[in-house]
Amino acid sequence: MPARILVTGIPGHYTRLVNGAHGLSVSYAERQKQPETKEEFLQELRNISNTGNYLIGEGALRALSPHAKHVPFWHLYNCAKNGVGLDEFNSNFDICVFTCANLLRKGLSADAEADVLEQLKMPIVMLGIGQQNRKDLENNLPEGTKRLLAILKEREHFFLTRGFETEGFLKDQGFNFVRPTGCPSVYFMPDNMRKSLRKLPEVDVGKARTIFSGYLGGNQDTVLDAKALPGGDSVPQYVVQDEFLHFDMSVEPNGEGRVYDTASGTMVGNLAYPGADRLGKPFQVRTFFDTNQWRAWASSMDFNLGRRFHGSIIAMQAAVPSLMVAVDDRMREMLGYTGLPAVDINEIDSAENRSEFVADHLGKLNASELVDRYSDRERTFRSTLREIGIGH
Question: Which phi-psi region, left, alpha or beta, contains residue 389 (left: φ > 0; alpha: ψ -120 to 50)?
Answer without folding.
Answer: left
